[in-house]
Task: structure prediction
Amino acid sequence: MLKYFLIFLLTIWMSGCHQQESYTLHLVGDSTMADKKDPELNPEHGWGQVLPSYFDSAVTVVNHAVNGRSTKSFIEEGKWDRVKAQIKSGDYVFIQFGHNDQKSKDAERYTNPYTGYRNNLKTYVTEAHALGAKPVLFSSIVRRKFNEEGVLIDTHGVYPYVMRQLAIELDVPFVDMQWYSEQLVASMGDPKSKKLYLWLEPGESSYKPEGKQDDTHFSKYGAQQMAQLAIKEMKNQGFPFVKYLKAENLKTNN
Result:
């Protein structure tokens, strides 16, 4: 009997040793990160929408990002409270806002970068930490805006700087998506970089038959490129879940 009992214990131990760890990534942000409806037909995609395709089953991506939200409106509409209700200890929380915080003519969304924006970001970080989660700050992805000389122009002002400084102050990881996307878009130039964004000729897409000229939101290809920029920096910073990346998908989408 002792022999069989020891075998039973050994079996349980070996099973535990081979059990795959798992990670959950909660995404909190605006339309550049958000899932879009009708993904098989809709030419617009958020980078968070395509992120799950790069990981195997050990990594679960829960995309809470919503079109048009700022750090302020996401909290005031109760969306952050709903995210917190789902967060478990050990989860990651990716936080990316900035595009809509700049809307100075919209009192429901605008935040002063040095006060409201900074303090809202601090709320996300400290409350995620209180739940045992691991917050990560992501700066906004560059808008496609070239001047007459073909130089890519910044549109985000001090918002990415404020986020970067807060990340240093709070000692949380920071992924500078503005910098990495700026390098990509500038290297492609104008007009080649249009393929990253939602630029459609009339009749090109049955989903948007009237066409579209959008320098903020992404095509599926653009979303894939932005997701890969984020993944590259996650690898550089040594996030443990990157071991579960699907190498074949990274190669396919390059």
Remarks:
- Residues 75 and 81 are 7 Å apart (CA to CA).
- Residues 1-18 have pLDDT under 50 and may be disordered.
- The two ends are 59 Å apart (CA to CA).
- DSSP finds nine helices and eight strands in the chain.
